[in-house]
Amino acid sequence: MRIVIAEDDPLLREGLALLLRAEGMEVTATADTPDGVLAAIEEHRPDVAILDVRMPPTHTDEGIRAAVEARRRRPGLPVLVLSAYVEQSFATDLLGDGVDGLGYLLKERVGRVEEFLTALRRVADGGTAIDPEVVAQLLTRTRQDSGLDRLSPRERDVLELMAEGLGNAAIAERLVVTEGAVHKHIRNIFAKLDLAPTDRVDRRVAAVLRYLEEGRRRV
């Protein structure tokens, strides 16, 4: 796996590079500015890019804007964004055009090496990895004015894990239930969110994007 890293903190940047190389991955370039990472992505054409949300010069949303621009230039480029805090509006900006091959994690997850590596591999394979804390806060913000308030506690658990990018088997293992039970909960979620079957829309993606978008409007 070929990786480009964008992080303005030199200790974290080099620590990430060392960790990934120790796992047998190829870190082709590192950068500390948005322009630098975009140039590196153009030159090295990585399998996945890891970007910090807050980068120079203003340390606000440069990393998100660089991630969006990178995906505009290279549609489908897997991107994993790291943030020190839960910033729901940034998450929805990134995920607004689709969730395939995208991740948004708190930096504290990097210290949980196996969780971080699992999320990175999921994103590189075209999946989605959204930090559970982001998911929890978005769900809390949207329950009052959406179909989410009709979900049972277990259905909310399943939806949160869906938003993290887990498949049915992984959700069943996490919740210690059968895959059949997970499938039933997901059917109920779709019904309560009024998500009818269609050839044009993936209902799992639609469910995640709905509450992400509603969370952004309420921030």
TrEMBL record:
Residues 144-215 form the HTH luxR-type domain. The modification 4-aspartylphosphate is found at D52. Residues 2-122 form the Response regulatory domain. SUPFAM superfamilies: C-terminal effector domain of the bipartite response regulators, CheY-like. Keywords: DNA-binding, Phosphoprotein, Transcription, Transcription regulation. The keyword DNA-binding applies. CDD domains: LuxR_C_like (cd06170), REC_NarL-like (cd17535). The keyword Phosphoprotein applies. Pfam families: GerE, Response_reg. InterPro entries: CheY-like_superfamily (IPR011006), NreC/VraR/RcsB-like_REC (IPR058245), Sig_transdc_resp-reg_C-effctor (IPR016032), Sig_transdc_resp-reg_receiver (IPR001789), Tscrpt_reg_LuxR_C (IPR000792), WalR-like (IPR039420), WH-like_DNA-bd_sf (IPR036388). This is Response regulator transcription factor. It comes from Streptomyces thermoviolaceus subsp. thermoviolaceus.
